[in-house]
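writing this on my phone so excuse typos. first protein, seq and then structure
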Amino acid sequence: MFKLIIFNSHFKKLLLLNIMIAFSFMSNWTYQADLLNAKKTSNGDLKELIGNVIIEKDSTILMTQKALIFSNNEKFQLFGDIKMIDKENILTCDTLFYFSNDVENIIAFGNVNFENDNNVIKSDSLYYSMDNDSISAFGNAFLNHLESTMTAAKINLIESKGFLGNSFHAQNNVVINDNEVIIKGSEVFYIDSIQHMTILEDAHIIDTNNEILGENIFIQFQDSMIQQILIDENPIINRKITNTSYESNTYNNLIDIISGESIVIDYIDNKLDKVHVIGMANSLYHVIDNNLLEGINEVSGDSIVFLFNNDELSKIKVSGGGKGFYTPEFQNSNIDSIINYFAEKIDYDIANNINHFYQDGSIQYQDTKLNADYMEIDWDTNKLNSYKVNDKQPIVQTDKKSSPMLGDTIYFDLISKIGMINKGKTELNNAFYHGHEIVHDNQNNIYSSQGIYTSCDLDHPHYYFKSNKMKMIPDKYIIAQPIILHIKGLPIIGFPFAILPNKGGQRQSGWIMPTFGYSERNGTYFHNLGYYHVLNDYSEIKVLSNFYDRKGFKFNFKFRYNKRYNYSGSFSSTLVQDLNSGSSDIKNIFSNATQNNNLIWSHNHQIDPTQNYNFNFHYISKNDFYQQSQVGYNSETRLQQNILSAFNYRKSWSNSDNSININLSDSFNPLIKNNKPTSSVPVFYRNMILPQIKFNHGSRLLFGDGSKWYNSIYYGYNSDYKASRDFGHLLLENNEVKDSTRHKNGINHRFYLKGSQKLFQHINFNTTINMLESWILGYKEPQLDANGIFIDNQFDSSDKLKRRLTGDLSLSMGTKLYGVLSTNIFNLTAIRHVVSPSVTYSYRPDFSQQNIFGLNIDYVTKDSSGDIYDYFSGNLVPSTPIGKRESYGFKLNNDFYGKIFTNGEYKKIHLINWSNSLSYNPTYEKFKLSYLNSSLRSTLSSNLNFNINLNYDLYKTSNGIRINEIANSPRLSSLNSSIQFKLFGKQIDRFQDTSLDSTEDNTNANIYDQYEPILTSNNKWQATFNLGSFFNFNNSLNQWDKDFWFDSNLDFNITKHWSLSYSARFNVVSSEIVRHNLMIYRPLHCWMFSFQWYPGIGPNNFGSGFQLLIKVKNPDLQDIRLKHTEGNMFGF
């Protein structure tokens, strides 16, 4: 049994100590003693009694060893062991004072002890006054009445005319013990006339099983019975309970706790009626059933009320944001998980063991969460019911992945986890399900009668599948029997049963539906009929097929695999079978059929973080495989010429910046192999790299860290070995074709030094030295004729090693200069100009010389006519640099920045970049100066930018020929420019009346001037224009070669839902359209509509076609579509 809150403890009564001593002193005393001394004093006659002093009056006897009696017997003092007897009352003390004016008073000191048949009073001192019939005990005061006791630093007893006849006031560490009830506090008041008790400061009321704590406790009595208890400031009620352990059958003591800002306990006829916890109410309760602990419940709210009937708890009411959680004792309870709950109001009917939740209620059990404005739970059956209230349907969510389910009524079993929904609706994997009755089982499967399945979220969807019986398996399938497709409520097509995907766009196995059409060239066809199969989390297979009744078949197979951080790859093949379309007899359709295919396997494997390998294998059975009409639908496929297979391995060492690469490859060009050679020069169609090995040592400091100039010098090294074999053919003189094979190899070692220095704190000086050591394993020696001239294509081969060392040097210097100009142009407040001049120098010796820097080299050989033969040319190393190269470069870069003030702050923008460059090469025989290049770039905003590149010739021309004479002024030789800008128009949301904000006379103003449009952030239309040109001056023709083009992209949001896009490219020079296309798009809530039209170009209407597509947006229902395509743009 599950109980949210309970409190079953109360105090039926508190016993008030009814102790009042009634002394009847008179003025006629008799006394005796062993010795009597009498004397006169200024205060009157004084009698001193010593030894066995006895003072009597009626039934009152005073006994002591010494007494002083003043005149008229109105005052006396007793010393020593004093004992006073008055009928059944006995008082003992060390000192006693008696004085009487109109009222008699007694003060006792030292070990004061008062006793009678039912009462005992003890204290350090005691004061009695007949004026108000009061007794005050001071110092360690102790009061005992029958089985009740009171201790305090001070106790005052006052006779009253109330129900009990006495009031009292106890102070300082007051403790009242009444049978098994203990009351504690700093002060305790009891006013008998109104029957009210007050316990102040750290108040406690404790009995055997219960404890009431609070800063202050107020108790109201009626005829000795408690009527109400009020606890304010930090009240706490603790209740001890006993239960039996499930395993050991032993008893355990537990404590229930109730707390809040204040607590009111009401009684009727001495029976507990109500406990009201006010403000930040909290309760912790141990649920006990049949003496077994079932669980622990904690609840809180603005207010908690406990209602009782005949001292038994009957109802509990929580209001004001009630929330809590129940933790079951898993061995003793059917509930096996924590239950969290919340509601504005919570009622618990203990007699029927039913909970009621009102207003924004929420219960979460395991992964199941229910929200409703009204819920009830029967804890005997563990059944949960929720109902629609004020048009608000209850919502249940059975796990974190699934979407909530709604319905008019929801029933749920907390133990079996089976639920049922009447008139339900839910969302699962981007789809919606409606049903007259929906049942949810403990496997998260959903069953529906008269069910509807759709991806449209409207209450009345645009389309849906309807079925009498439907089962939804999350992340797998939807099984329906029968099923009918409805569009706009009308039945379109039906099936006896259907299995629909239900994975929310995730990978799933299933059939791929084809598209159908007709082509003038290939006839009736279907495309992409196939099957997709998910093997596991790492791999998948897809098979597609095409058929043309005039052409044949095509099958595509692809196997993909991917294990993250380990390996990935794919294996694919395309099989094409062309039928005999030339025969009209169907019997001959396969007689001359041809079949060919390809194979492609790509694999990438990560061995560990420092090494990996990959390979690509590509095979075709026919050289023109990709040029077939069934394969080459687009120009990219048709122009594919190289069939490449390759293997690559890489290893790196991060601690040393070293790495090595090993590569093997085979590149084959089938189109070249099919073409017959036209000369005796070999044409190679296949190249094999066997192998290529690269080693790289990353850049490092040459002399380590430091502040010296040489500590900024870096070095780097890499090495590259490559061997290849080429296959080709050539044409002999007799017109025969002969195969040709060529072998090449080479090793390159590259080493560089780089340094950067700061000169005069403002000039950057950079130096770079590059060195290249090349080796070839074998070379050819050209043969000479009798005159020492090279013989064409006649060589002597040598397998010796030949090496070569080359290099170059480059130097550069640069700096920056800054200037600022203050302006006041619109919101432009300042312009910053950054000038960056730089000078470069590069040098490379002439390695065709026999001697360089005093070293004899043999990189090339010359014949008697001066022709040069390079031993390294034609190998896998760079050719030997011929001729000395020395050049000086000059560059002047200008950047202009603007500082603008907008929206209350300053912003920096880049206005213009203007760059100029020129070089000078003194080693050239003529035209030592290069063209002067000048470029201008600007991006003033995201909507406007332009780029202009200009080349100027510094030399003269004569009769259209460039001559080696400096011109008087630079001459523009070429211009390349582009300008891009965007225009757009915002949508108007509404108009704002501005007439009330103006004090001007608007009598003659147009009425529309009073309204200012409020724009949205969405564009109504947008246009992007790109204007480009290229001009090059042709000296020989003395005219400009021109290319001038214009691109435009226009987007229009015609209405809220319709959009139109148009793009085109124009050749301005020839006034022709190069290409253009139009697209219309319309989202249809749960559908998508698009139309693309390519009008085509030229007399043959090249690139024409259109495509109409209407399909469902949901990724699981992509096969529900209408598609029509025509035109050569799409291969038809």
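second protein below, same order as before
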Amino acid sequence: MHLKSISHVFFALSVLFFLSPVKAADTEFSDSVKRMQPPDYAAGLPRRDAGLDVLPGFKTPPAGYGEVPFWWWTGDKLDIDRLVWQLNELHKKGISGVQVNYSHYDTPGWLTENDEPDIFTEEWWKVYSNVSKECSKLNMGIGLSTYTLDWPRGASNLFFHLFYSKPELNAIQLEKGPQIRVKGGETRTFDCVENQFAVRAYPVIDGKILRGGVDLAPFIKDGKVTWTAPEGQWEVWMFRAVPQKGSLNPLMSGSGDTVIKGFFQQFQDHNAGKSAKGLNYFFNDELHIGVGKFAWNTDFAEEFRQRKGYELLEVLPAMWSDMGNVTPKVRMDYADVRMSLMEERYFKPIYSWHASRGMIFACDSGGRGLSPNEFGDYFRVTRWYSAPGHDTPGGNADLIKGKVSSSIANLYQRPRVWLEGYHSLGWGATPERIMFATRENFLYGCTLFNLHGLYYATYGSHWEWAPPCYHFRMPYWNHMDVFLGYFDRLSYLLSQGHFVADVAVVYPVAPYEADMDGNRAKNTAFDLGRRLMAAGINFEFIDNDSLARAVVENGRLVVKAANASYQALVLTDMEAVRWPTIEKAAAFAQAGGKVYNVGALPVVSDRVGREDPELAAKVNLAFKPECRFGKNENAVEAIRKAFVQDVRGVDQVVRALHRKAGSRDIYMVMDAKPDSVVEFRAKGAVEFWDAWTGATTPLRVIEETSTGTKVELPMDTYEAQIVVFSPDRKHVNPPRKNNVNATSRTLANEWNVTFVPTMDNAYGDFRMPVTADNKMIGLEARRFAWARETEALAKTAMLPATDDKKWTRQLHGYGPQFYVLGPLPDNVDVKQLDAELAKLKLVDPSASVSVNGKNFTWRPYEFSWRMGKEGDHGHQGYHGLKRIVTDDFICLGKQAGGLNETRYEAEKDGKRYYLWTCATVSEAVSASITVSCAAPADKSHTSKVITPAEVFVNGEVVDIGKPVSLKAGSNPVLVRYDQAGRGHFVMRKADVPAAGSRTPLSMRWYDDPGVIPFDVYAGDQHAEWFRFLSAPGTEAIHVQASGQVQAWINGEPMKAKRGGRFVARKVPVSTAVVALRIVPQTGRSGGSLIPEPVIVETDGTGMLALGDWSQAGILNNYSGGVCYKTSFKLAKDEIKNRVILRLGSVVATAEVRVNGKKAGVRVAPPWRIDISDYVKSGENTLEVLVYNTLANHYQTVPSRYRGSPVSGLLGPVALEF
């Protein structure tokens, strides 16, 4: 038969062909809701039975509903005692468990940052087993995240050693080889390609490839194909199955079992008694698996035939080229088989291993649900986690991430929804900020709270990973149990039972599979979700498989296994759908359900592809003309009017979550104004459940309607209100509130203050090395106003009234080491300028230098011999500081962004610079000069490394490669650089051996006794003055200095004691000016005279005004607690009613004591406490203990995440009666 004739019958036959029977699905697998019975010791797994009473668990949550932090085992050598101490600190706050994480370097491949001992070594298992044993004692879980460990980026990480390095486990990618057109009767010979598994010739009619073709394998000989084409046009395709080095094949039979055996099972084998008890919270973070759309396996074609009923090779070109109407079907079928194999062979076995042991197995995938085609089908992969999850960085909530994760958990009845919270918010993160974000995230369906930051070590404040660390280092840790307890209750309550929503939005995967503008469908779906929630309508994303198992009952679309029941279904810009989706949409619409479409209608399915009359008919049945919209806002309005909404604010819009647990209807409501009315589609006794305390109180019902109940809600808009209906009980209204206007009395603005240090430095977390003086870091002076002494200053510098605003600000350890001139223009006469500047014996910074008719001035260049340039420790790593202090302390040029560092680039005015200083020595010496050289080849992202173009000593040019003779006294040094960049220039005594040890966090010059300090004053020594505003009640200070010290406080000399301690003769009540006069050693000036912070002691008698304490001198750098104390009098009639203490505003947390008794702790607004039970008539004492954040401490640390230092009891503080 002629090929033209064949084409005429192709379409009709293909419809029958593609509709032929397929292999029946594995029923156990297809019921992905089916749950295993967990062991008795499993914790944190919810109940969904009709007889559940959630009140006892809400009042006192059972084990497993507390926070589970990421525990970063990086930053220092692991020490079992230190780890155990940290566990016990966490246990005190009710934390359920920990998940060990490892960070990574920013080197190629992102190698795991692995301190001693190396992971999975015998020594590491010893550490892990001991920690796991302690967790078991404390009834805490412990697991490990595969973050960095399983990344197939080419680095030699753990999974590379365990799996990826083995070729037989590597993923395989389907690739097309050459395509060759052959005419009928023509004989062609062509070479086979590497990794070829098939070669096939397809008929071509009117330029389009047809299904079927001829297998050319029989025509292969000696690596070549020789074939004579029959009549017509043909196209030869070669197909390759290419192994992907350094990866794992999830389509391979047994791949999941391989990972279980090599990784997960190892933890049980090393656990006490080889039991899984105590193990929990394993995690895939940013998992990379497979090779995407074209993933392949050796049995893929056979599995395709059995599952789809036709031969893949007959249509395989459709994966790349248009083979007619069948093309989208082939692509969707390929995707389905790929996903099925991945689920069955990889994800399901790993899920089952965890589920059978009662473990939470969670994820935060790279796309966080925002990429429906991640892994091929995000929904299908993520349903194989017991806690689908995601992150929300920076103190924010994310509606779409939350709804995707929670929809998967709801539809597949997974126990929890993992919320990885708030990395990169910075060291100023407050409970207030993350309280609101976490409430929102729980509103969106999250139920397992995981704070990203729990660091094993912060290594002298110089190791961090997307900070902050929210746990025991934070000053407010003493109050964190109140914050965490709130979410323990919500985690328990909102995990039980099932989610209730009226609207289901199809999660658009099919358009990606069919290559039909998946991004448009996704963007429309997500925009619709945001608009629905903004309108007060909650919703759920639904996948094809859930629609396939859904039934239509009583005009609702019901997924019985999930207890889900919808009144509306929405598709958005989905030109491609799977057949069960459109079939169920049509059935739902025909039964009276509301089925809406926004944007493009479906034109393609996996039934037969394009141009399908059956699909067109189903589309018409599914979407009535009035249910088709071009814009999301129209769809939202139609939904709003279509039925009585579950939650409706009266004269306001509120957002709400609804769950059904046992017989109760549980609502979480946000955005309701105080004492406003909200109508719920529920009836019965209605109560407010207080997540702070576990208490329940009846709410006031305004009206019971035919469809629900109007309820008055009492809390502030900022709060989340838990409203619970018990339909089996009749409601009894509480007494009406007393609406008499309250009277208010503002308390004093100045309070007595006592400082409560919290920065425990026993392990060197905040400062290294650990010394007797810094084991607990409290009040310190770190930054000073500084000036060299003049005749006038000698008389006035110590007086508090002296104006020091024009003095230079200096950080301890940092001082002037050079004067710098430039940038200078490139066309300067270098020889003439060199000669002129080399003659200088002393630099006068007030005198200008004329260059090409333009005046330039010398500027001080400051650095620390320990820390280098202030604020710039050089190249670090991703997400913060990495224990690195670069040796390159000279930075010239304009600052520009770089990869984890600051780059220095040429400025517009030029790139030539001069540095001038002196090498002042007590006797003649021979000195060597050390300068920076070229940058390493793998650091192309860094600044150029600068090397001096010329060096002059004592006016003569010198060869930096040879020793230089220095005379006794001052030796002027001039260094010229002809480009911008970063480098170092050091002079040292040639005959002095190098240091045998090195101080942590220091340049290599710091401990070197041979280094010659630079002296910008050329031996002209003057006393130097330092001033700072000290804390109220300062009674003593401790000063380490490179020179003789005198001290004054408020103009009065302080008594010098031993060891650099100075004591005030009269303790000032308020903040006080401390002045230090230091006679320096040669080569030391400015802040370098004071290598360590000045320690400040107070006696508790000080007074401080309410407000931001970071504005009060040295308190700018104080992270810790302040106990504010005052008193007030109350008349007898004033204590007859409730007495409310209003704190105004607080950063970050506050604990209130009245007459010595604890009245409460507040970690977020509203900043008020009922103190009625603690006050008395007459005199009352009031104490407010406020803890701030670590932002204040980090103000002098070169972290990109310092945060705001605003701190304290900001006030105003008032009593309300």
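Residues 1-13, 20-31 have pLDDT under 50 and may be disordered. thats all i got for now
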